[in-house]
Amino acid sequence: MTDKTQQATFADLGLIPTLVERLEELEYSQPTPIQSHTIPDVLNGRDIVGGANTGSGKTAAFALPILQKVVQQAASNSRRGNFVSHLILVPTRELASQVAYSVKSYSYHLKDKVKTVAVFGGVSVNPQMLALRGGSDIIVATPGRLLDLVSSNAIKLNQVKTLVLDEADRMLSLGFTDELNKILELLPEKKQTLLFSATFPEKVTTLAQHLLNDPVEVQLQSAEASTLVQRVFSVNKGEKTAVLAHLIKQHQWRQTLIFVNAKNACNHLAQKLSKRGITAEVFHGDKGQGARTRVLDGFKSGEIQVLIATDIAARGLDIEKLPVVINFDLPRSPADYMHRIGRSGRAGEVGLGLSLIDYDDYHHFKVIEKKNKFKLDREQVEGFEVEDDQNEAYFMPMKPRAKPAGTGKKKKKRN
Ligand code: AMP
Fold first, then answer.
1. What is the four-CA torsion angle of 29, 138, 317, 16, rounded to 10 degrees?
2. Does ligand 1 have an atom closer than 6 angstroms to the CB of 342?
3. Is the CATH number 3.40.47.40 carried by domain 224-394?
4. Ligand 1 lined by 316 (C-beta under 6 Å)
5. Cβ-count burial of 301 within 10 angstroms (0-12 exposed, 13-18 middle, 19+ buried)?
């Protein structure tokens, strides 16, 4: 861990005035911790392995020094053929367009000097092929589409100087290992590698070891977690929708992101909320790109207040200062729990990560707590108190799915 203080300004970190000026326009008053801990080392050519969530400001942490390199090395970089100098790999198309958007925004005053292209699947390949002609300085890509473009000779990776793996843990959990390995084989041996990951499962650690050369390690999770309040509410089986509707109406959050575990569960929950007078939109993998963009824009602008999403669709969503994220269904993996709640309380804002758990979830939530090393008090919602035979405090099952006698039979469903 380096000892740079958080009080440093962007200029202190070694950024050129054009970039500093742009950050002032964007009202970035001071660097976030991940930015102050990594920008000077990235500028110095060091490899980085950074523990940082979406929302910590990590896009700027790698994008700003890369932009500076593009400008300072303009003579040797001169774009040509289908080569690319700096490659940023991300797990989803949403994140690809979001990161490319940020890079373009940071380079607003360098428009003539920097060419950034986003390549991702789910949309026509032709405009991307056209955009790649004549070479690019920076490419933000999802692995599958990048490999398609390599095999059709639309892009060459053997001149890459910087490789960024953004959200490396998600990339690997989404099963990109083979694609990632194919890409790594196409890259030159000598390059600077920046790896960012919210969590460090074994696969990421292994990747880090064979990919990085004497990296600077920056681990900031605990500081970031302090901007996030986590709460867990115990509810009776069959009452989650009623409790959810009650909380939404009670708190009137500006935006609420609700996670469920399946696409049809999104639609089902939206219908049930609608019967309770709450309009919600859904966001999942079956939606076309146009519909996804429209829903996301509506949610960002505040037009849509309640969004129900699955993990796959919501990875990497950048929605500024999301006040609350609710786990209606618990995520299967403890790492996904951290990713989900990391959507709130972004860049220093206090956010709320809230989970609704019923009898069937108690065991799994304990596992999530244990793996992520936290422990929360079980709360109850007034008017929806948990019955004794479903209360974790009175009855903790030995097996996760075993039901206590009578559960769910006598009880009238409220949703
Ligand atoms: P990221 O982690 O890169 O997805 O960034 C999360 C959000 O924080 C984005 O909306 C950025 O525009 C914003 N952001 C990044 N760095 C700063 C900063 N130094 N000051 C204020 N906002 C920032």
1. 0
2. no
3. no
4. no
5. exposed
Question: How many angstroms does the Cα of residue 34 sit away from the middle of ligand 1?
Answer: 10
What residues contact 370, with CB distance under 8 A and at least 6 apart?
A: 334
Ligand 1 neighbourhood includes 344 CB (under 6 angstroms): no
Residue 55 Cα to ligand 1 middle (Å): 6
C-alpha of residue 347 to centroid of ligand 1, in Å? 6
Taking residues 96-111, report their average pLDDT: 91
Nearest-atom index, ligand 1, CA of 98: 4
For a ligand 1 pocket test, name from 53, 228, 346 the mutation site with the most ligand atoms within 8 angstroms of its C-beta: 346
pLDDT tens figures, 159-193 = 999 999 999 988 887 788 899 999 999 999 999 99
Q: Is the CB of 54 under 6 A from ligand 1?
A: yes
Q: What is the pTM of this model?
A: 0.63
Local structure of 151: helix, strand or coil: helix
56 CB less than 6 Å from ligand 1? yes
C-beta of residue 390 within 8 angstroms of C-beta of residue 237: yes
Residue 139 and residue 86 in contact, taking contact as beta carbons nearer than 8 Å: yes
228 backbone dihedrals φ, ψ, rounded to 5°: -125, 125
CATH of 11-219, one of 2.40.100.20, 3.40.50.1370, 3.40.50.300, 1.10.3720.10: 3.40.50.300
Spatial contact of 150 and 48, defined as CB atoms under 8 Å apart:
no
Residue 53 Cβ inside 6 Å of ligand 1? The answer reads no
DSSP 352-396: EEEEEE-GGGHHHHHHHHHHHT----EE--TT-PPPGGG-TTT--
Phi, psi (deg, nearest 5) at residue 103: -60, -45
Q: Please report the beta strands in 235-391, taking only residues with DSSP state E, as ranges in sequence order.
A: 256-259, 281-283, 306-309, 324-327, 351-357, 378-379
